[in-house]
Amino acid sequence: MLGTTEIIVIGGVVVLLFGASAIPKFARSLGKAKKEFKEGVNEGLEEQKEGDK
């Protein structure tokens, strides 16, 4: 498990590598990917339930 110090260091490295302006774009893309993944999982569960009937 990562501690607070490690998370801060990783965040600093990300800012240095990508710049502060790229972080919101990255976060937005990550949110969209998470949403699409959840939708895909839900679709799979619905199809599985229909197949069990």
TrEMBL record:
Top-level taxon: Bacteria
GO biological process: protein transport by the Tat complex
TM ranges: none
Keywords, in A-Z order: Cell membrane, Membrane, Protein transport, Translocation, Transmembrane, Transmembrane helix, Transport
Gene Ontology annotations for the cellular component aspect, listed alphabetically: plasma membrane
InterPro entries, per database record: TatA/B/E, TatA/E
Coarse class of the protein's main subcellular location: membrane
Membrane disposition: Single-pass membrane protein
Cellular compartment(s): Cell membrane
Keyword Transmembrane: yes
Protein name: Twin-arginine translocase TatA/TatE family subunit
Organism of provenance: Candidatus Thalassospirochaeta sargassi
